[in-house]
Specification:
The complex is a heterodimer.
Chain A: E1 9-13, E2 18-23, E3 31-38, E4 45-50, E5 55-56, E6 61-64, E7 70-75, E8 84-92, E9 108-113
Parallel strand pairs in A: 1-9
Antiparallel strand pairs in A: 2-7, 3-4, 3-8, 5-6, 6-7, 8-9
Chain B: E1 4-7, E2 10-13, E3 19-25, E4 32-38, E5 45-51, E6 57-58, E7 67-73, E8 76-81, E9 90-96, E10 107-108, E11 112-116
Parallel strand pairs in B: 2-11
Antiparallel strand pairs in B: 1-3, 3-8, 4-5, 4-9, 5-6, 7-8, 9-10, 9-11
Classes of the chains: A mainly beta, B mainly beta.
Chain lengths: 114, 117
């Protein structure tokens, strides 16, 4: 799996958009970009994933650059409950490689401030 | 959406005792489940891959005789920490993918916090 690079920590004001970057310059053509988050003392929670097109769901938006070497997760209106560690993971789709685990890096610790 | 549960959520035990942690997929089937361990202020590290009906595969450095894994059905995997010691105190998390629907992602359990006194 391609390695990812994320900032160690970020702060965001409550109600503002939180933009979390991720670099994955060695991503392969069949690898997706996944985002999970982990709130303190809980299991990771799936947020969103994409291959090359931008994606949006009820939680967040995922913007992937045209060369796919980087992406940004956007939480449009951050709340205090969004304080968590956010993990950007690059891997082959689970539908194609069911038996493969996720490899977690250190992630970005997002602190949403009141 | 798909749900993975773990039991217990928290356990405290004495050194030398064994502890069993259950991981269940509540609304889907999984032939493969993964067990992770997370120490304070660190990221999740894969311990082993649990395979239904066959032996688990362990990551390098994880003792298979200490961390016994049983995957007896398509919805249940158990991790038993045998002869637990204080250094085994950690947050244990399982995950699974949907075998039938083959969704792109995997679902994680809420975790089990083990404290060995």
């Amino acid at each position: 799996d391609a390695k990812t690079t994320q900032p160690t920590s970020m702060d965001c004001a409550e109600g503002r958009a939180a933009n979390l970057p991720c670099n994955h310059s060695t991503i392969s053509g069949n690898e997706y970009v996944y985002w999970y988050r982990q709130i303190h003392s809980q299991g990771p929670q799936y947020i969103i994933h994409g291959l090359k097109n931008n994606e949006t769901n009820e939680m967040a938006s995922l913007i992937i650059t045209e060369d796919r070497k980087s992406s940004t997760l956007i939480l449009p209106h951050a709340t205090l409950r969004d304080t968590a560690v956010y993990y950007c993971i690059v891997r082959v789709s689970g539908s194609l490689d069911y038996g493969q685990n996720f490899v977690f890096g250190p992630g970005t610790r997002l602190s949403v401030l009141p | 959406g798909a749900v993975v549960s773990q039991h217990p959520s928290r356990v405290i035990c004495k050194s030398g005792t064994s502890v069993k942690i259950e991981c269940r997929s509540l609304d889907f089937q999984a032939t493969t489940m993964f067990w992770y361990r997370q120490f304070p202020k660190q990221s999740l590290m894969l311990m082993a891959t649990s395979n239904e009906g066959s032996k688990a595969t362990y990551e390098q450095g994880v003792e298979k005789d200490k961390f016994l894994i049983n995957h007896a059905s398509l919805t249940l995997s158990t991790l038993t920490v045998t002869s637990a010691h204080p250094e085994d105190s950690s947050f244990y998390i399982c995950s699974a993918g949907d075998l039938i629907r083959r969704t792109d992602t995997q679902y994680f359990g809420p975790g089990t916090r083990l404290t060995v006194l």
